[in-house]
Amino acid sequence: MDTQTTLTAEHTHLLAQITDRARIVLQIASQDRWPSRELTALARYLRAELIRQLTDEERLLFPAHEATPELSRLARDHARLRACVDTIAAAACGRDTRSPAQIATTVRDLLTQLHNHLATEQATLTAPGRPTISTAALGACPHRWYPLTEGPTIDLDALPAERLLDAIGDRLHRLPRGEHLDLCSRTDPGKLCDALASGDNDYGFAYLACGPDQWRVRVTRRLER
């Protein structure tokens, strides 16, 4: 089986992405400074990718297994991870009064919980001699797209053409109201913009560059629908 289609490979990628973002938060917090931008980046990744992974596993993987105490434990782990993500997201939005040291403790706790959970989940769901298939191989959105759509400028040519609408639609859904991002391409992205705007007045589109070698469209999420 291709390693990119296994649950272990999917978990490895997810954990590496979260760990990289968490280390930056911990580095800033260790200097007794509030990691505002870094914590926001971590919270957005957790909300977009970790929570989706948990939901996809419950939808695509758990029903294929007989109900057991081990499977119930995995579900409880998911609930605890969701609660920890909510805590980090609230801190990133300034909705609590945690100190840098306290948020560092919360982030380290998340990493420990996640590392232990993923190892337990792989051992529980994997049959001897037969690796468990990943959620992406069963139709879920691959996690490798997120870094390509994370910043304020997205290179459309770097994304898979057959899933471009899904990837950009997911990114626009994460875009806060009143903020914008730029879509860049070597060809006119007009058809993509039309598809994104179809039946939805939540976004505005404006061309910043019209070729011939580089096209750029700014997408702004409106403050109110």
Automatic annotation (TrEMBL):
Pfam families: Hemerythrin
Domain Hemerythrin-like, chain residue ranges per copy: 5-124
Domain of life according to the entry: Bacteria
InterPro entries in alphabetical order: Hemerythrin-like
Name of this chain's protein: Hemerythrin domain-containing protein
Organism: Nonomuraea guangzhouensis
